[in-house]
């Protein structure tokens, strides 16, 4: 299987790639103004691959627009499952207070973390966010 061959070959880069993504995430965390967003808590006894790094913005949609207007394409992850049409028949079984899931859905933004980001790219992203 071609996909398996590619994946196996990429394993030799996993530690280096994870380290770079961690450095990018730390750069975001340390350089975005504290009043602009909140970060998730990462436990010190765990290791993350930083395949994404969720940030939480009160003005998420305006930050998203500023970024995309500058050809930077962040992600939005984890829409509430009960909002998908396939789950509508089961709505009556879902607890009423899903405020945490609702807040996550409305505030979460994932900035780029790929290997081709340069330090200049990262600084540009930070400047856009801090001036949003």
Overview in brief:
The protein is mainly α and 132 residues long. It has helices at 2-10, 14-31, 60-69, 99-107, 119-130, and strands spanning 38-39, 54-56, 108-110.
Number of strands: 3
Secondary-structure content class: mainly alpha
Overall pLDDT level: 89
Number of helices, counting only DSSP H or I runs of 4 residues or more = 5
SSE order, one letter for each helix or strand:
HHEEHHEH
Low-confidence stretches: none
Q: Can you give the helix content as a percent range?
A: 40-55%
Could you give the distance between the termini?
A: 46 Å
Q: Characterize the main sheet.
A: 3 strands, antiparallel
Gross geometry: globular
Strand order of the largest sheet: 1-2-3
Instruction: Work out the radius of gyration.
Output: 17 Å
In terms of DSSP E residues, the strand content is 5-15%
Task: Describe the overall structure.
- This protein has 132 residues and is mainly alpha-helical.
- It contains five helices and three strands.
- It has helices spanning 2-10, 14-31, 60-69, 99-107, 119-130; strands spanning 38-39, 54-56, 108-110.
- Strands 1-2-3 form a three-stranded antiparallel beta sheet.
- The mean pLDDT is 89.
Features:
mainly alpha; 5 helices; 44% helix; single chain; 132 residues; globular; 6% strand
Secondary structure topology:
Blueprint: H1 2-10, H2 14-31, E1 38-39, E2 54-56, H3 60-69, H4 99-107, E3 108-110, H5 119-130
Antiparallel strand pairs: 1-2, 2-3
